[in-house]
Hints:
The chain is an alpha/beta fold. 27% of the residues lie in helices and 26% in strands. The chain has helices at 3-20, 23-26, 140-145, 148-165; strands at 41-44, 51-56, 67-72, 75-81, 87-90, 96-101, 106-112, 125-128. It is elongated.
Amino acid sequence: MKVMPVLQRAAAALATLGMLLPSTVLAAPGNVPRARTSDMVDIALHEGGVLQGRVTDSSGQPQAGVPVRVLQGESAVANTSTDHQGNFRVAGLRGGVYRISTWTASDAYRLWMPRTAPPSAESMVVLTSGSDVARGQDGRFMNFITNPWVLGGIVAAAIAIPLALDDDDAS
Length: 171
């Protein structure tokens, strides 16, 4: 048995695995970067858990009849539409983190019950609809690629394909 080809294949497999795993998987627990929460906008709810907002286009003009969806996690908790002045209103919400989205805009907000919001909290949500911003950080690809079965298949392919293509005859 030749030791060098086995070591080369093992090194190639480890290098492939290292490139495929996200750096946070390989990092020590204390060195894993944490998500920044400073980008989250604080919104003060009005009495009765009422969220007020406005949808505008990229030039600041109000957008009428735009569907607005309020999500908490993956669950939709409210659906509404903007009025003729681009305003919307959702009642009965509680404090927490929500995603508020239209067809072309979506942002996360931390909603606070009345009289509990920090002084820097805004009184209403303003979504800019139709902006030329492409958002690609939805995380679905990373959820797929970090699945243990997918990783195992990739590693197995990284080992099996070079072995299958190896045309060195043992005879």
